[in-house]
Amino acid sequence: MLYGIVDIGSNTIRLKIYEYKNNKIKSVFSKKKTAGLIAYRDDGKLNDEGINILSSILNKFNKIMNLLNVARRYFFATASLRNISNTYEIIAFIKEKIGVDIHILDDETEAQLSFNSVKSTGLSNDEGILIDVGGGSSEIIVFENKTPVDKGSLPVGSLSCYEDYVGIMFPNKKESKNIEKRVIKEIEDLGLVKTHKKYLFGVGGTVRNLKKLLVHLNFINEKKDAFPVYLLDEVLDELKYNNKEDFNKILKVKAERIHTLVPGIIIIKTIAKYFHVEKICVCKNSIREGVLYSLLDAEGL
C-alpha cells in the first residue's frame, strides 16, 4: 500500500510517498517546492498570494498522488499555518477547492513525532538532545533511556530568524548575537530542564544541509554522521562576509538555502552550547517518517 505524506513548512512544502509491504517501509517518491510562506504574512495572516501559492502546490501534489494511486494521504502543517490568525479559514478554503484536509500539529505533537521518527533506528546513544530546526519553529526534546523527559517548541526557525534579524543575506556579528539572544530567551521561557548532554541529534533539512556544507568545505568526511560542536564556530567563520565568495560556498551545496542556512546553524549552535553538548549527530529521518509511523500504528500495522 502507498502512503503519501505532505509536509507544509514555512519555507518548503514536500511530498514523500512510501510503500508499506511485508512489514517494511520504502521511500518511493519525493518532490519538494520552495514556497516561502512566511514571507506572505500581513498583520499575522497568510495573505491571498500566499494562500494561492499553497493551494497551487497542494493541488499539484494531490494530482501526482492520483496518478500513482496513493491510497492513504496525510497533509500536515506545523508553524507555517499554526502561527497565523487565519489558520482555519485556509483549512476550509483548501478543503473546498482541492478536497483535502490539512492537519495542524500542535508544538508538543510536532516534537514527539520528530522524536518518534528516529527513536528506534536513529539514536546511537540512550540519552541526549534531539532537535528539528524548521523554517518557522525549532523543536527540542530532552531524552533519557530513549524516552522523552522534556520537550517543547521554540517559535523561531531558520527562515523566521532571517526575516526578523538579517539585513542583507548573511547575518553580521550584531545580527548573529541577536539571533542567539532570542533563541536563549525562548529556551528559558519554555522552562526546559537544565541539563548537560554529550550528544545532540538533529533531524530535518537544516542539520542535513549543515553536514553537506561541512563536507563541501572539507571539515568532515562524507561518511561521518557525527562531528564536534566546535566545528559550528569554524563553519560560521567561513560565512561571515556578505560577498560572492562566501555566498558561493552555500550556493554550491544548497542554493535554495542561501538565506536560511546560516541562521539555522546559529540556532543549532546556540541550543548545543546551552545544553553543553560535545557532539552533533545527523539523523536521516524526519518528522514525515514520524507521521507515517503514527498512521501505521493507528491502523494496527
From TrEMBL:
Pfam families named in the record: Ppx-GppA
Domain Ppx/GppA phosphatase N-terminal as annotated: residue spans: 17-298
Biological processes annotated in GO: regulation of transcription by RNA polymerase II
CDD domains: ASKHA_NBD_HpPPX-GppA-like
Protein known as: Exopolyphosphatase GppA
Source organism per UniProt: Methanobrevibacter smithii CAG:186
Lineage of the species this protein comes from: Archaea, Methanobacteriati, Methanobacteriota, Methanomada group, Methanobacteria
